[in-house]
Design goal:
The chain is built from 12 helices and 11 strands. It is of the alpha/beta class. It has 2 domains: 177 residues, 3-Layer(aba) Sandwich (D-Maltodextrin-Binding Protein, domain 2); 134 residues, D-Maltodextrin-Binding Protein, domain 2. It starts with 6 loop residues before the first strand and ends in a 23-residue tail after the last helix.
């Protein structure tokens, strides 16, 4: 009897409609099998799990991936992003606040338990800067530990931030800050809600999102093309070195699962997914390093560098296994 030549991979993936087909056997790639760890909802926790044990396929933040490259480590990203966010509904204010638009934030105080260079923190600042032209230097930022930012290259007014969700919302409700920044749900949830932001609003009555009209967020995308990609899927470099075909196969597997996502969404959620595409004018969740995806990753890397998160930017292509790039990296 001939022995099987299939390569088996252990994967850390989010529990989402666009990954479900990876778990139930609907997606199959010849010569490849896998098992999935899919119960970790929080992206930073998935980053940690990716570094543990024998995980071959996982996830990490763009900032961390750039830092790895600058330390001489090999590229390990693939052009797959499980949960990009519009990074606008993330800003929460008091229900009685006179603030209703990002331009109202100039000269105000913004707090968060997140650090300013975190995926969400930095991406929200980038959108305020790039999409709305907000003077970031006019704002007092009470975010995480300011000392964790290697260099305050933009000269922002940084202060110690709250250390917990409870402390953060206490500051907001007392009026110590004018707004706070939190993480939304992925994809269409970051446009319409039914996500962690709504859960926070329920836990802390008297609060609301700064932007309550999805049309404002969608118009920002149509005007600027900005839909931040702060996290990327990864393939272990040792696995890719031993089996150069695997990064491309994994991209194909995730792409197949992504195309099957509608089968795993309830009707109301599928309506949100379709409405997002209608409002944006295109599907922003197709994997691969398209011009638009590249521009978003490049913008985030550039902003992180300007912020002081690392000493120099890198081209987006440098983050990826060459075989997953257009033309196979040639």
């Amino acid at each position: 009897m001939a022995q099987s030549t299939s390569i088996h991979l252990r994967m850390v993936i989010p529990p989402a409609p666009w990954t479900r087909a990876m778990e139930d056997g609907s997606v199959r790639i010849p010569g490849l099998t896998w098992e999935c760890v899919s119960e970790i909802d929080n992206a930073p926790d998935r980053f940690i799990a990716t570094e543990q044990g024998d995980v071959a396929v996982g996830e990490n933040g763009v900032r961390r991936l750039v830092l790895e490259l600058l330390k001489g480590r090999p590229a390990r990203a693939i052009p797959v992003w499980f949960g990009r966010e519009h990074m606008q509904r993330n800003i929460i204010v008091r229900a009685d606040s006179p603030l209703h638009h990002p331009r109202d934030l100039a000269g105000k105080r913004i707090g968060s338990r997140l650090t300013i260079q975190s995926g969400t923190g930095a991406a929200v600042l980038m959108v305020l800067d790039h999409a709305y032209g907000i003077d970031l230097m006019s704002i007092d930022w009470f975010m995480g530990d300011p000392a964790s930012l290697p260099a305050n290259a933009m000269g922002l007014r940084l202060h110690d931030g709250p250390t917990s969700e409870e402390a953060e919302f206490a500051m907001l409700l007392r009026g110590d800050v004018d707004a706070v920044i939190e993480t939304t749900g992925p994809r269409y949830h970051s446009l319409f809600g039914a996500d962690s932001i709504d859960q926070l609003l329920a836990r802390y009555p008297g609060t609301r999102p700064l932007i309550e009209d999805p049309g404002v967020i969608a118009e920002t995308y149509r005007r600027t093309g900005l839909y931040p990609i702060s996290d990327l899927a990864t393939v272990d470099p040792d696995v890719a070195r031993a089996h150069p075909e695997i990064p491309g196969q994994v991209v194909e597997a995730f792409s197949q699962a992504n195309r099957r996502a509608a089968a795993y969404r309830p009707a109301d959620e599928q309506a949100l997914a379709e409405r997002e595409i209608e409002l944006l004018g295109e599907d922003p969740h197709v994997y691969g390093l398209s011009d638009t995806a590249r521009a978003n990753i490049a913008a985030f890397i550039d902003f992180l560098h300007r912020l002081g998160a690392f000493e120099r930017p890198v081209p987006p292509e440098d983050l990826f296994h060459p075989s997953t790039l257009p033309g196979g990296g040639r």
